[in-house]
Amino acid sequence: MNGDGGLPRLDEVAYSRRRFLTGAGVVAGAVVAGRVVDVWGRPLAAGATVGRARPPAKGRTVVFVELAGGNDAIDTVIPYADPAYRTLRPTLAVDAPIDLDGAAGLHPNLTTLGVRYRAGQVAVVEGVGYPDNDLSHFASLANWWTAQPGAPGTTGWLGRYLDATVGFDDPLAGVVVGPGPSPALLGARSFATSISDASGLRPRTPSWLTGADDLLDRWARMGDARAGRHLLEDQVRRAIALTAEARGDLDRMLDGSTTADDTTVDQRAYAGGSTAVEAFDVAARLVTSHRPPKVVYVTNLGDYDTHQGQAQRRPALMADLDAGLDRFLTIVEAAGVADKVIVMTLSEFGRRAHENGSGTDHGNAGSHFVIGTKVKGGRYGQPTSLANLDSRGNLPFAVDFRDLYATALGWLDTDPESILGKGFHPQAILA
Amino acid sequence: MGPQPDLVAGTRDADAGVARALDLTAPAAVPPTIDPPVDYDTGRELAQIAPPIAWWIGQMQQSPRLVEERLVWFWHDHFATGLQKVRVPYLMWQQHLLVRQHATGNFATLLKAISRDPAMLVYLDGVSSTARDRNENFGREVMELFTLGRGNYGEQDVVEAARSFTGWVVNLPGRPGTRALPNPAWTSTFIPARFDAGTKTLLGTTGNLDMDGALDVLLGQDATAIQIASKLYWALVGTRPPDKTATRLGRVFRDAGYEVMPLVEAIVADPAFLADAAVGAKARSPIEKLVGLIQAVPLASAAVGPVGPRAGNALRTLGYVPFVPPNVAGFPEGTGLLGPHQLVHAFDLLSVYPSRPTVPATVAALLERFALVDVSDRTRTVLAREDDPARRLALVLASPEFAVV
Known about the structure:
heterodimer, A: alpha/beta, Alkaline Phosphatase, subunit A, three-stranded antiparallel beta sheet, 12 helices, 30% helix, globular, B: mainly alpha, two-stranded antiparallel sheet, 22 helices
């Protein structure tokens, strides 16, 4: 190739030497299984249409709520009547749980969830996990993301769902509300969108830059279809075209309003992103829009990895979660689409039954919620029993998390076997 | 760590480029410091971290010690520690200074220093791990992420390692619920009474292992050397090493007593390093984009600082604020950086310029500043049809060509 301007002889050697001087690959985070995959998968077939508008959807939505870090099941659905409870949790035992049935109660800060439980809209599923959990955050999250424990594949389970149902046509069928993409929605022939707040996919450009919309139109026209060593670049080019198209649609879904802020690098910058209420507010706008996504995946709701300081941290986490869920459900109910939506919580594992002095270490099975007007409320799975711990002092798993996934796929009218493989079945918790 | 355009232009061939990149003869810049806080309450003033971050990005932009800045970021990411949990900027910056001190030095030394570093002890709960109430967080992550890698240890090894790491505390003056400690404020120390002095068996080695004893066991495993060598290969080359190469580089690393520079030299001597196959194989990270941007078009006034609050917001949106990794596995990488969110918010980085920057007037001159030499025809056409140089800058920043490296 010829040199440009004042840089003569930019031949292959010069090109190569750029390798070091330009700082290729400064970042090398540890490899999280399921993330090391080509987001854009196989290249689009020649002539494939992208970003084709789909008709207004009347379909259903599942909202997943990822409680990353390992949500403490024993402090969520509390076995307060179990004689071992106060022995195992001498400093962390909760005094006034919201009673469910005389044996167990919800964390006292799950106030509105308790009200909805009594209204029969909350399924509490206990003992959720999978065999041989090795209790590593990253391994276990990867298992939940790929739904292939022990042999994590290269795609996320919701990515495979999007591959099978919408493909590249609709980048807004799956939307992550969080700081970035989730490996759970990583497909081979589809892509999901992730947004951090109601500004959607609008860049936040400085005021001296004029004509942002026109600029984005031009942006979408950059890059050639180039193969060989340009494969990744070509995939970026396609992604940009789809992104530009999805952007406008998303703005309409989010009702044109924005919470984009111009605040300085403040407390929030280091606090791990938006609070639960803000995130659920965005989720509610998506679900009540003219074309609700099939999947909304809410992440980054705080650090549930409470090895220490649990007595202070858990009440705040539970209150925040409850406020967020209430915001979401209240909006969805007011919009009259409550019967189109279910909400499902996820977490990579529960926590050790025996506290470690100020917190709890990684455990095995978790307790999760499935919420909605079409849910048959009640307790499901293996009722939490502190007399029935595994050899490491953890709640044993009884319900495979993929059975919960199958329940969600059933709600979306999709054959679970096509996504999860054989052997997983929807739980009888939906009306 | 970025395309310092003047260096690229002045370098004659690949060998000279590599030699220049590895040259550490220029004196290291003196980093700024944060004064030790009076107590835990005032120590949590998060804004204290902003000036050091600005200085650090300035180093990435213009340090003559190229390989050092690359390695500082590499180890920062490798030993990811989050301000979200540590809360005290002073401790985070002390860790940074430690990383900077050892970045081009010895991995075993760095590992041992990081393991008793106050920020790490807080982040992975070493401070609350005692003989009676063992906390496995650090014991697990040190094997999974910092040394061996998954598949090279068992659950019992996690227990035995965690026992070996008990006994360390950090003096956080004025933190509620902590008792007085003999060591100076903001330092760590070992308290024998909190240590599990029993016999441990870690990966086949039995004894009364303590922190260094357990770390020596981990450093004695081939898997550790191979893991670190592979990760550094990915960072420098942009592709994953074939198994044979990884094994060979692991041996080089161990034979060098875990000295970092011999490993770097072995990696850059591998033919893959200069092969075109590795060019453009990897996603460019947001921090690399920011550094590339201000190298291409420097800020008008040094007084503004290389990264103001608005650029900080952009990095936050992109999930790449230094000291705030999303989790202990470090910052996002690879194709996870190529989704709609990451692509569209690349434009946000322009906020680093408080006012309209002075941009080279021609497309060719602009691309040269970005060291983009292999640009597609359509991109050139789009750029040529845009009359406003500042808008051209925005388009280059968000272009498919600049998204990979």
